[in-house]
Specification:
The chain is α/β, with parallel strands linked by helices. 43% of the residues lie in helices and 16% in strands. It has helices at 31-44, 64-67, 84-87, 105-121, 136-149, 169-173, 175-184, 196-205, 209-213, 220-223, 225-244; strands at 17-22, 49-54, 72-73, 95-100, 124-132, 154-160, 187-191. Strands 3-2-4-1-5-6-7 form a 7-stranded parallel sheet, with helices on both faces. The longest helix has 20 residues, at 225-244. It is globular, with a radius of gyration of 17 Å. The protein starts with 16 loop residues before the first strand and ends in a 7-residue tail after the last helix. The model is unreliable at 6-13 (pLDDT under 50).
């Protein structure tokens, strides 16, 4: 059963950099798929950004680094692992995209308690990405993270349609989720259902939707016209969603 977080206020100061991270709660709900599309959106509009792969499972396929070789790999379970959140700012990018793996909650909790005030004083803002699916456990994970992140971050909820159709009734009607929306006023966007034959092939081969949409891949199944057109539509539709909430994604 989800529980509503107790509310504590942490006012923001002037923002010069933004760290956007997927909440490392329930696994298998599309966090990395979302992060890859977000990275594509930043690239498409010419926004300098750095990428951090924080999935401690060190997967060879399907991780952020599998899609983007320039993504920095770090183990959040090691001492100071989450310091890469801010160390990467030394490279000069005003935006950081960090993809957390499942089970990173306690580590993130300790890091924010220790480091958030310093980050805020140096103009760094955070956006926590909560991916929800029809599974109530994904909603419970978002609420648990909000319980310790509080108003130290901005929130963006991604309704990920992992089936067609998808029923988000639990997210929309649960009393604790309603309290979360009322108090934290998250942005809410939708990520449409993606055909498994496209999603699985792209994941297995580390191929981005941009590569599929522009036929820059040698994977036969992804070079078919229908696959190319679908990739173009996925990008267009999700980019339109990003544009609606760009204040949560840019410094």
């Amino acid at each position: 059963m989800a529980t509503a977080p107790q509310i504590v206020k942490f006012p923001q100061s002037g923002i010069t950099s933004r760290i956007v991270f997927t909440q490392g709660g329930k696994g298998g709900i599309g966090k990395t798929a979302f992060a890859t599309m977000l990275a594509e959106w930043y690239a498409a509009q010419g926004t300098p950004h750095a990428l951090i792969d924080m999935d401690s499972e060190n997967k060879s396929k399907g991780s952020l680094r599998h899609f983007f070789s320039q993504a920095r790999k770090t183990n959040v379970q090691q001492a100071r692992g989450l310091d890469e959140f801010v160390n990467v700012l030394d490279e000069g990018s005003p935006v950081v995209v960090a993809d957390m793996g499942a089970g990173a909650g306690e580590v993130a909790h300790r890091w924010f308690d220790s480091m958030h005030e310093q980050a805020k004083e140096n103009g760094v803002a955070f956006t926590a990405i909560g991916v929800v699916t029809p599974d109530p456990a994904s909603v419970a994970s978002v609420l648990a993270w909000a319980g310790f992140l509080q108003k130290r971050v901005d929130y963006l909820i991604v309704k990920n349609s992992i089936s067609n159709p998808s029923d988000f009734g639990y997210w929309e009607t649960d009393a604790h989720a309603d309290e979360f929306r009322r108090v934290f006023e998250p942005g809410v966007i939708s990520m449409e259902y993606r055909l498994p034959e496209i999603e699985h092939e792209a994941r297995n081969h580390g191929v981005t939707m941009q590569a599929v949409a522009s036929r820059q891949t040698n994977v036969a199944a992804l070079n078919r016209t229908a696959s190319v057109w679908r990739a173009q539509a996925y990008r267009r539709n999700l980019f339109a969603e990003f544009d609606r909430v760009k204040d949560l994604l840019l410094p």
